[in-house]
Amino acid sequence: MVKTDKTTTISSAQMSYTPVATALPTEQVAIPAEAVHYQDGAKIFDMNHAIRTVSNEYADIPETRGLLWHDDFFDDDDDVVAAFDFDYENMENFYSNVGWCWLGLTLLYTPLFTACMVGLAPCYLKRNVQWSVQAQHVAITRDGIRVVRDKRSTCWGMPCTDAGKSSKTVPFDKITDCDIEEPAGNTCVVIRNVLTTVNIDTASSGQGRSELKISGLKDAQRFKQLVWAMKRRYKSSGPAAALEVASRGGGGDDVAVLLREIRDELRQNNNLLLTMNKGGEPEPSA
């Protein structure tokens, strides 16, 4: 991933401008025209508007071709394959409408309506939705799906009501299903559902409950395709991983660690097969 400041000043001799339309899939950053400004003969690149692409390391994966995103949250993470943008504007409109609908329903119960008025709920409803939505980020890494909710303001926006940063990673080897739920029908009878939801299931997911739900992605289909592509790549990188490390000049310690991990997994699998055949308890691994 690209490591850069939000706004970077680079002279025209140091870096030439690459329009979005001609950006190659393996380039790290393309800067649209509205993000380029000139000052004292130098180009000023506003990285908040930069378009990021997949690095050369993952360019061999067909599903990464043409992937572009604006979210700069994961720029400093070296293990990120691709980040995916949320449709923040659409999410804010939808969740705000749902919030106003529920607030209106409190009129049916006077004590609850009074509590909402005292808590200034109508004044801070839109802001709370914005704070919550803008804090969401998602990326596909070398190891799995990473979902982050950054530190954000809540309630009245005071420091004492801030919510801390939280993150969750679902490893590829734990994923059993990844499907897309297209929007249909209405919420609260009158609010049309407009957000696409990606459901991630694992072996530990309960019946009817997904391990992870991601709503509001701009390109949920490409997200799903890349998840399955990375899962296939992960499954096929068993013994070959050691050979790849060695071919890239990796140290003997790295190869030894990988081989030990493979050995331990084979022992566990053999032990499990013997247990199933004998109907007894598994033997402890060495």
Would you kindly provide a brief summary of this structure?
The chain has 6 helices and 15 strands. β3 and β4 form a beta hairpin.
Helices and strands in order:
Layout: E1 7-11, E2 29-30, E3 36-39, E4 42-46, E5 51-53, E6 68-69, E7 80-84, H1 88-105, H2 110-118, H3 121-134, E8 136-141, E9 144-149, E10 166-171, E11 175-181, E12 186-187, E13 191-192, E14 197-202, E15 212-215, H4 220-235, H5 239-247, H6 252-278
Antiparallel strand pairs: 1-4, 2-5, 3-4, 5-6, 7-8, 8-9, 9-10, 11-14, 12-13, 14-15
Helix pairs in contact: 1-3, 5-6
Describe the structure.
This protein is an alpha+beta fold. Helices cover 33% and strands 23% of the residues. A four-stranded antiparallel sheet has the order 7-8-9-10. Strands 1-4-3 form a three-stranded antiparallel sheet, with no helix packed on it. Helix 1 (88-105) runs antiparallel to helix 3 and helix 5 packs antiparallel against helix 6 (252-278). It is globular and about 65 Å long. The two termini are 40 Å apart.
**Oligomer type:** single chain
DSSP strand tally: 15
Question: Percentage of helical residues?
Answer: 25-40%
Enumerate the strands of the largest sheet in spatial order, edge to edge or round the barrel: 7-8-9-10
Q: How would you describe the shape?
A: globular
Low-confidence segments, given as residue ranges, are 1-27
Radius of gyration (CA) equals 24 Å
Secondary-structure element pattern, one letter each = EEEEEEEHHHEEEEEEEEHHH
SS class: alpha+beta
Distance between the termini: 40 Å
Estimate what percentage of residues fall within beta strands: 15-25%
Mean pLDDT: 80
**Biggest beta-sheet profile:** 4 strands, antiparallel
Total number of helical segments?
6
